[in-house]
């Protein structure tokens, strides 16, 4: 109990540099210094950026890579599970309507049971996969693609600015970046939101967050349903 108490006091000091602390802290998405305290639960704090509307967890509370992988290893994603395919079809179906035949794609963060890449291959597209734990062939990140997908990935990123910029760079002009992630609705709803309870989830976006990204890239964003985000790279 004493150790837990000391950790709690240290964590409070970390967040509480001036009130909750964030006087010199920059946002991990837009790099602006408009960060303020947002929410606290039993395990960690959440901060909010007033510029891009991102909610994120300070790195003090991030898991180590082995801890993270241990949780991912428990996922039961199966490429032939109809329920999982139905879930992924929320991104796959609108994406297929936007792509020319025989496009070349990258599934970024393909996970322990790559499925979206198989679905896109079955539809006639050429696919590569990348995952830092399960498919860590970084050479695929040196190629260029007609489309890139990231399903249930961006909420795990400690550096969404750097990762999204890298993906945007390897996307061909006219190409599409398709993202699937649950979106923050309001601060009031955040406290009871199940999505924040996964310890590997550390970055939470709203519609405004992706509108910011679209403005930065001088494009527009299309949000399909509640959790599918499509950004097309200008020609």
Characterise this structure.
By secondary structure, the protein is α/β, with parallel strands linked by helices. It has one domain: Rossmann fold. Helices cover 30% and strands 22% of the residues. The protein is built from 7 helices and 10 strands. The chain has helices at 2-15, 65-72, 82-98, 116-122, 160-169, 187-190, 207-216; strands at residues 35-40, 45-49, 55-56, 104-108, 126-130, 145-151, 171-180, 203-204, 221-224, 228-232. The strands form 2 sheets. A 6-stranded mixed sheet has the order 5-4-6-7-10-9, with helices on both faces. Strands 1-2-3-8 form a 4-stranded antiparallel sheet, with no helix packed on it. A hairpin with a 3-residue loop joins strand 9 and strand 10 (228-232). The longest helix has 17 residues, at 82-98. The chain is globular and about 50 Å long. The N and C termini lie far apart (59 Å). Mean pLDDT is 91; it is low at 1-19.
Summarize the SSE layout with pairings.
Elements: H1 2-15, E1 35-40, E2 45-49, E3 55-56, H2 65-72, H3 82-98, E4 104-108, H4 116-122, E5 126-130, E6 145-151, H5 160-169, E7 171-180, H6 187-190, E8 203-204, H7 207-216, E9 221-224, E10 228-232
Parallel strand pairs: 4-5, 4-6, 6-7
Antiparallel strand pairs: 1-2, 2-3, 3-8, 7-10, 9-10
Could you write a compact summary of the structure shown?
The protein has 235 residues and is an alpha/beta fold. It is built from 7 helices and 10 strands. The longest helix has 17 residues, at 82-98.
Key attributes of the depicted protein:
Rossmann fold; alpha/beta; four-stranded antiparallel β-sheet; 235 residues; single chain
């Amino acid at each position: 109990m004493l150790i837990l108490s000391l950790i709690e006091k240290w964590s409070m000091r970390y967040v509480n540099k001036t009130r909750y602390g964030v006087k010199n802290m920059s946002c991990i998405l837009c790099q602006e210094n408009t960060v303020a305290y947002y929410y606290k639960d039993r395990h960690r704090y959440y901060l909010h950026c007033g510029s891009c509307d991102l909610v994120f967890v300070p790195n003090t509370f991030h898991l180590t890579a082995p801890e993270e992988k241990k949780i991912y290893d428990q996922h039961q994603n199966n490429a032939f599970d109809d329920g999982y395919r139905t879930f992924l079809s929320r991104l796959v179906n609108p994406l297929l309507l936007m792509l020319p035949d025989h496009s070349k794609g990258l599934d970024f963060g393909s996970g322990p049971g790559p499925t979206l890449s198989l679905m896109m291959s079955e539809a006639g597209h050429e696919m590569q996969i990348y995952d830092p734990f399960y498919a860590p062939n970084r050479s695929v990140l040196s190629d260029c693609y007609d489309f890139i997908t990231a399903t249930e990935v961006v909420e795990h990123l400690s550096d969404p600015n750097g990762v999204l910029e890298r993906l945007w760079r390897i996307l061909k002009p006219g190409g599409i970046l398709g993202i699937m992630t649950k979106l923050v609705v309001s601060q009031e709803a955040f406290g009871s939101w199940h999505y924040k309870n996964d310890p590997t989830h550390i970055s939470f976006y709203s519609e405004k967050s992706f509108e910011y990204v679209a403005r930065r890239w001088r494009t527009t964003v299309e949000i399909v349903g509640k959790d599918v985000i499509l950004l097309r790279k200008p020609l």
